[in-house]
Specification:
eight-stranded parallel beta barrel, alpha/beta, two-stranded antiparallel sheet, binds S-adenosylmethionine, about 45% helix, about 475 residues, binds iron/sulfur cluster, 2 domains, TIM Barrel, 11 strands, single chain
Length: about 475
């Protein structure tokens, strides 16, 4: 099999597959661990070092309860040290569910005749966008099935449509996309629409499992998908998001697969991915997956803590697939982005009803049905700063996670003030009185903390006052 190199470690080359299952299993099976090694690896991560496959395997193999606790504590420390208390909010916007692939786990698979197919028309897309921006959103991820209709031109056009929608003070300032992989030319066209992050999940880094669960369609080609982000990179789309779908194969293997993908990126393009996602499989119509690799809550938390330590400067995303209590707990391990007020039925945002989910129209079951307003209120009450910031991306400061991490004081000088400014905008335009009071109390508290760390706050206070007077879109 082509994925088995003679002497582990496939060299990293542009546009070439880089996953060797034997190499990954070798790390899992043969890496020794003990409390000293675990502590050394945790302190390397806290010193802002991206972990090697071997170091990650030391953490993966630490099975004793007290070591698992130390790893979780390490992840919490890293989160506080590196990311502070900001949580970026976004919403998914499903544009169309036509699909020519047959992914065993997905409700949109081509053979599923029970699902209702729909692609939003332009006026529907505008209505959905208005509903989203009128709830306070500024950042979206637009989602598409894999189908000839969803060409690069179609994707670019839908993204541009969304960017053009304005209503009162509302506008979408950053559109990320999750769509099928294209060739380099296709990615170039998409790039012209000013997308933020291009996100695509490998689903599983295990080729045999991949082949089994992708029954037909273009997506069956493991290597085409694995090298998708290389092609994006060649096309100048250097802001990318990786992911695995947990429940298809052993989580320990998938975790090392993600780290291997990050290594490949760093070795080849000298840049890391912007984000990593790790959805767990949820119920869907015609779900056809055996349950052997289901990841329970305990292992899920543990996996995220290891991942946090392994890739300290990559944003971690956790979606409304997970119930509120799991999401709330995981925030403290370093998740940096969550969705809020999520609806995944096409057209549902503008219907504005609280009807139960209808899996015949949706890709999978979501389990956190809180509105954006509820999530904002809860984040503020728990001392997190909800952020809609898009400053780095719009100022061309790409690789912001890396900057947050490597430029001393960057978070205090840029990220926290920008988060507070977008929070003030939200409080002025969309919050009820109770949330507004709590929100401004939080802003004052955070400004005092910035001052206590010897950073100037005059300009920030000035800008917050301008927001109160009606100015929008101010940032550093
Ligand atoms: N068609 C594009 C693709 O396959 O890349 C768009 C992806 S899909 C709309 C977004 C992601 O949802 C998939 O990559 C997969 O990881 C995830 N997904 C699919 N079925 C799921 C399920 N039953 N539960 C949870 N996540 C699921
Ligand atoms: Fe289609 Fe994507 Fe669903 Fe696979 S995961 S069936 S490619 S929408």
């Amino acid at each position: 099999m082509i994925y088995t190199p003679e002497k582990y470690s496939i060299p990293d080359k542009r546009m070439k597959p880089f996953i060797a299952p034997d190499e990954i299993w070798n790390f899992i099976k043969n890496t020794k661990t003990d409390k000293h090694r675990v502590r050394d690896v945790i302190s390397a991560a806290l010193d802002k070092k991206r972990l090697s496959l071997e170091e990650t395997a030391v953490l993966i193999n630490a099975n004793e309860p007290e070591l698992i606790e130390e790893i979780k504590e390490g992840a919490k420390k890293l989160k506080v040290k590196i990311y502070g208390d900001r949580i970026v909010l976004f919403a998914p916007l499903y544009v169309g569910n036509l699909c020519t692939n047959n992914c065993a786990y997905c409700g949109f698979k081509a053979t599923n005749k029970d699902v209702e197919r729909k692609t939003l028309e332009k006026d529907e897309l505008i209505r959905e966008t208005k509903a989203l921006l009128n709830s306070g959103h500024k950042r979206l991820i637009m989602v598409y099935g894999e189908h000839p209709r969803y060409s690069p031109e179609f994707i670019a056009e839908t993204v541009e449509t969304v960017y053009r929608v304005k209503d009162k003070n509302g506008e979408i300032r950053r559109v990320n996309i999750n769509a099928a992989p294209f060739d380099v030319e296709g990615f170039r066209k998409i790039r012209q629409a000013r997308i933020g992050t291009y996100q695509i999940f490998q689903e599983t880094y295990h080729p045999e499992t991949y082949d089994k669960v992708h029954m037909s369609g273009v997506k069956k080609n493991f290597e085409w998908r694995l090298t998708a982000l290389d092609r994006a990179q060649e096309a100048g789309l250097d802001d990318v998001g990786l992911g695995v779908l947990l429940g298809l194969y052993d989580w320990r293997y998938e975790l090392l697969g993600l780290v291997r993908h990050v290594n490949h990126f760093e070795a080849t393009y000298h840049v890391g991915p912007h984000t990593i996602s790790f959805p767990r499989i949820k119920n869907a119509t015609r779900l056809d997956i055996d349950k052997n690799y289901n990841v329970n809550d305990r292992d899920f938390l543990r996996m995220i803590a290891v991942l946090r330590l392994a890739v300290p400067y990559t944003g971690l995303i956790l979606t409304a697939r997970e119930p509120a209590h799991v999401r709330d707990e995981i925030l403290s391990y370093g998740v940096s982005q969550i969705d809020g007020g999520t609806k995944i039925e096409m057209g549902a945002y503008s219907e504005n009803s609280n009807k139960p989910q209808d899996l015949k129209k949706e890709q999978f079951q979501i389990n956190d049905n809180r509105s954006l307003a509820e999530i904002m209120d809860e984040l503020i009450s728990n001392d997190y700063i909800p952020s809609f910031c898009t400053a780095c991306y719009r100022l061309g400061r790409t690789g912001e996670h890396f900057m947050e991490f490597s430029v001393p004081g960057f978070i205090k000088r840029f990220c926290t003030p920008n988060a507070l400014l977008t929070l003030a905008e939200y409080l002025e335009d969309y919050a009820d009185d109770k949330t507004k009071d709590k929100g401004y109390a939080l802003i004052e508290k955070k400004i005092a903390e910035i001052e206590a760390a010897n950073h100037k706050t005059e300009k920030l206070i000035e800008k917050i006052n301008l927001v109160k007077k009606g100015k929008r879109d101010l940032y550093f």
